[in-house]
Write a structure and sequence with these properties.
CATH architecture of the largest domain: 3-Layer(aba) Sandwich
Order of helices and strands: HEHEHEHEEHEHEHEHEHEHHHEEEE
Structural class: alpha/beta
Number of domains: 2
Strand content: 15-25%
Radius of gyration: 23 Å
Distance between the termini: 84 Å
Number of helices: 12
Largest sheet: 5 strands, parallel
Number of strands: 14
Helix content: 40-55%
CATH superfamily of the largest domain: Response regulator
Strand order of the largest sheet: 2-1-3-4-5
Shape: globular
């Protein structure tokens, strides 16, 4: 009787242990995201969320990572940086996420950084400004090129065309404000002179006054617009309405088919630096990014029946770099994952080849930027 009771007790205990271990093994890898799905930055956040949802589902169907499924926790900050901070706390405190992908932009990212640094959670940002990773922050990484790199690429193209006297029109947001600062520094280094320097607000709907000042400024040879979302499209329309015939440059802050749709024929002839994704089909067969960008483009367009954007590509790269780090670490231990992200070498993404290090938490160089021009409503690869 005692033996039977003991065997029954041991069997129940073994079942309980097995159930517990099974539950533990099935515990999902928790991916957090704070994105600007609505508001002025929806231009960025909408394709980012769709990308994360697409690939979380795809990876789960293929068996997950480390034998575990992925679970996505996402919040919409409505393009309000202050809200991003609160949602970051929720991801950390309530959702207990293993890694965070996004802020969609610089403002949201900078609002989230104190939270992730304190909580020690790996953070893959999609903010464009250099301030995201300079100075280096232990738990913070980013996937887009910096504003500084964009300024350098643009000024190099301008100088090749003999354009050295430039008007700068920048947005007062995080990305635009940082871009203004970095452009001024880079211009001084590269022999570019700003003969006009104007700004506009992220919610402005008419930039005619600033552009009129630029038009009436003597000596201007070209105009550089530093912003993201709908603002640069408004600038471009106002530009044409005023009959300004000077070369117009934008940054990777508008690297999306949506920009051409918003700006219409006014965008004809505008130039900008961009990741390879926008010209995926135009890349040489030998280009190491060709396979990656074509595969992402097909998967996204098949699922959502809409054009890809580089912003969605930043989300893809952020997620994939984090998951690759987990594979290499063999764990979701946050410190091990952080260390593995920092050790990323030769990773080919939609944005370029990533080579991160202790002193570089982005890992891209100028070779990842392609100079594009809008012709006949399409992107033309210049170099």
């Amino acid at each position: 009787m005692v033996k039977h009771s003991l065997r029954k007790t041991l069997a129940v205990a073994a079942l309980a242990i097995g159930t517990s271990l099974s539950a533990y093994a099935a515990d999902p890898i928790r991916i957090g995201a704070v994105l600007s799905v609505t508001g002025p930055a929806a231009f960025l956040g909408d394709p980012q969320l769709k990308t994360l949802q697409l690939y979380v589902e795809k990876i789960n169907k293929e068996g997950g990572i480390l034998g575990r499924q992925l679970q996505l926790f996402h919040y919409d900050d409505g393009s309000d940086a202050a809200k991003a901070n609160g949602f970051a706390k929720r991801l950390v405190d309530d959702d207990k996420v293993d890694v965070i992908v996004g802020g969609s932009n610089t403002g949201s990212t900078m609002s989230m950084i104190p939270v992730v640094e304190k909580a020690e959670v790996p953070f893959m940002s999609m903010g464009g400004a250099v301030v995201v990773v300079e100075p280096v922050k232990k738990w913070v990484f980013k996937t887009p090129h910096t504003d500084r790199m964009a300024a350098e690429k643009i000024f190099d193209d301008m100088k090749k065309r003999g354009l050295t006297k430039v008007a700068l029109l920048s947005e007062t947001s995080g990305f635009g404000a940082s871009g203004k600062k970095e452009s001024e520094i880079m211009a001084a280094k590269m022999g570019i002179t700003f003969v006009a320097n104007e700004t506009y607000g992220p919610k402005d709907t008419d930039m005619t006054p600033q552009l009129t000042k630029i038009k009436n400024t003597a000596g201007v040879q070209a105009v550089l617009v530093f912003g993201f979302g709908q603002g640069p499209a408004i600038v471009t329309k106002n530009y044409k309405q005023l009959g300004i015939a000077l070369p117009l440059y934008h940054t990777h802050g508008v690297a999306s088919e949506e920009f051409i749709k918003l700006a219409g024929t006014a965008a004809e002839g505008a130039r900008l630096p961009s990741p390879a994704l926008l010209v995926a089909e135009k890349l040489a067969a030998s280009d190491p990014q060709k396979g990656v960008v074509m595969a992402y483009r097909k998967a996204y367009m098949d699922r959502f029946k809409e054009d890809v954007s580089t912003f969605g590509g930043y989300g893809y790269d952020g997620l994939m770099i984090a998951l690759d780090a987990m594979k290499r670490a063999g764990s979701t231990d946050k410190k091990k994952v952080r260390d593995a992200i920092e050790a990323t070498k030769g990773y080919i993404g939609t944005t370029g080849k990533f080579n991160m290090s202790l002193t570089d938490h982005m890992g891209l160089d100028q070779s990842a930027f392609r100079m594009l021009e809008i012709k006949n409503g399409d992107w033309v690869l210049l170099n």
